[in-house]
Task: structure prediction
Amino acid sequence: MNELLDFLDCKEIILEVLLALGPLVFFFLVFQIFFLKLPMEYVKNLLKGVGLTFIGLVLFLQGVTVGFLPVGSAMGEVLGSMENRWLIIPIGFLLGFVATIAEPAVRILSYEVERTSGGSIRAQTILVTLALGVSVFMALGMVRILFGIPILYLVIPAYLIVLIMLKFSDPTFTSIAFDAGGVATGPMTVTFVLAIAVGIATAMPDRDAIADGFGLIALVALAPILSVMILGLLYSRK
Result:
């Protein structure tokens, strides 16, 4: 019962969602009154959608606060305190794959790519490519935490590779790649992955929770860019 009451105590979350959605609804109403003048039925459906979005965001963010973040931190502390710490590398790979597959924004991007490309680029191909890219960089992030590698030693070379690949990548896949970088770092991935990374760094006595725990999301954002560009090179050869 106490857990249910804690979950329902979401006044701050409701206020945050209202502040986020309120301006969007306001601007739409202004444009509707003075410029758009859409049919009333369309406006009703849109407002229903906004209402459902509001409820969904409140439930999701509250679930993240009371569920995902504590569980991720607890998992990270358990992983960081293991004797065989090298196991966090394959575990990180699997967690990166699962978190990306579960990310709603990644699925939407995959479906949109398939729709706009007329089916020549399959949604499943994009989804698996993004998941594998994030998995590899998630494992790389675990290696960084394990050995205390400075984040710049990984981020700078990766961005240099991206800049070089821009010269050879197809413009279509370049556009998809940079959108994928933002999409892959969605609420599912960020909340779970970040909490685990901070938990692992906290549990290790020779690591700093801030210096070593953070920075993983920067690698995750790079992963889809590189993986989609590589996919584009394979498509161009094919």
